[in-house]
Design goal:
The protein is α/β, with parallel strands linked by helices. It folds into 2 domains: about 55 residues, Signal recognition particle alu RNA binding heterodimer, srp9/1 (2-Layer Sandwich), CATH 3.30.720; about 70 residues, Signal recognition particle alu RNA binding heterodimer, srp9/1 (2-Layer Sandwich), CATH 3.30.720. It has 2 helices and 8 strands, in the order E-H-E-E-E-E-H-E-E-E. It has a 4-stranded mixed sheet, covered by helices on one side. The chain has a 4-stranded mixed sheet with strand order 5-8-7-6, covered by helices on one side. A hairpin with a 4-residue loop joins strand 6 and strand 7. It is globular, with a radius of gyration of 16 Å. The N and C termini lie far apart (about 35 Å).
């Protein structure tokens, strides 16, 4: 099984560039109405859909409701330090600063994307393997 999350956004191209830069993804579709973002191995990671485009399925969401209400876009990544540095360069809004979640034995940072979605980046605590992590 593999998840294929899709979120509605106001500007697909801008959202695509934001996620590409933050997560090191690449476009696999492109366009103003719909986008597929994939990892370097071609695995689909995230889909973006413009709010006001209905395509063959009708409306996907209600743009009058705050985007991401009750939803976290959670990405477990290998290079959290790199993503944190990129998020700082991008001046991404920080919801919860970079920290060690002892109960989950992982590092996390919670961000807000330009469309209002909460984006969580996490990485397993691998300090015991000699890999440095930011504090």
């Amino acid at each position: 099984m593999h998840s294929q999350p899709l979120i509605c956004v106001h500007d697909v191209e801008a959202a695509s560039l934001w996620f590409q830069r933050l997560l090191g993804l690449r476009s696999d579709h492109g366009g103003k109405e719909y986008e597929r973002l994939v990892a370097s191995d071609g695995t689909l990671v995230l889909q973006l859909h413009r709010w006001d485009v209905e395509h063959h399925h009708g409306p996907i969401g209600d743009p009058s409701i705050k985007p991401g209400n009750g939803v976290l876009l959670w990405f477990e990544i290998e290079d959290l330090d790199g993503a944190v540095a990129r998020s700082q360069e991008m001046n991404a809004e920080v919801v919860m600063p970079y920290y060690h979640h002892a109960g989950a034995n992982q590092y996390e940072i919670w961000l807000r994307d330009p469309n209002g979605y909460t984006v969580v980046l996490s990485m397993a605590d691998i300090k015991e393997l000699g890999v440095p992590c930011l504090q």
